[in-house]
């Protein structure tokens, strides 16, 4: 019979029997025999993640200094896709590669995933849907985000097809990700509201709002391009 206990930080945890490991993830009966607590605090982990994003943005700004003709929105979109590329390919790719041992991982990426998993423990239990979704995100969305950023940087006509494909993939993945757990009442999230609204909803919300915005932008650009070609063809036929 499971016996709830309280661990450091006031989080309720569970010990299934005398040999099982205490953990703070929901459902509390989730078996995580290889779980090892994080050695870094939540503020420290969030700080490390923020520093990583700032470092990526700094490199992006250095590259953009060589392209002064790019407009503000093009530069902002370039930086967005560079950040997406690093998160999708490296951070989410790390999860895919280490999902079986993530609960006991002490590397900084592993500890970040364990912190996030307080809002969705499926990441520590090798949930089939989450694993396949993250695999697709790492091997498709990541490279496509870099390809989109490169197309923006070079002013390539591939920019909007790439931007549309990447944004649709991001949006589709997040809609499925949200719905597969919200449909059941988010049973994998701790009851504290900041995990649900802060980690699960807010952090993932970037990959809903921005893909919708950029997808609409690309649809409009592609529509205008096709309309111009059709108008040009019509003039040629009448001349």
What would you note in describing this structure?
The chain has 239 residues and is mainly alpha-helical. The chain has one domain. A two-stranded antiparallel sheet has the order 1-2. Strand 1 and strand 2 form a beta hairpin. Helix 1 crosses helix 2, helix 2 runs antiparallel to helix 4 and helix 5 runs antiparallel to helix 6. It is elongated, with a radius of gyration of 22 Å. The N terminus is likely disordered.
Label this structure with key terms:
single chain, 239 residues, mainly alpha, two-stranded antiparallel ribbon, 6 helices, 3% strand, elongated, disordered N terminus
Blueprint (SSEs and pairs):
Blueprint: E1 3-6, E2 12-15, H1 42-64, H2 72-98, H3 108-116, H4 128-154, H5 159-182, H6 193-238
Antiparallel strand pairs: 1-2
Transmembrane segments: 45-65, 77-97, 129-153, 194-214
InterPro entries: EBP (IPR007905), EXPERA (IPR033118)
Domain EXPERA: 73-215
Give a quick precis of the structure:
It is a multi-pass membrane protein. The chain is mostly helical. It contains six helices and two strands.
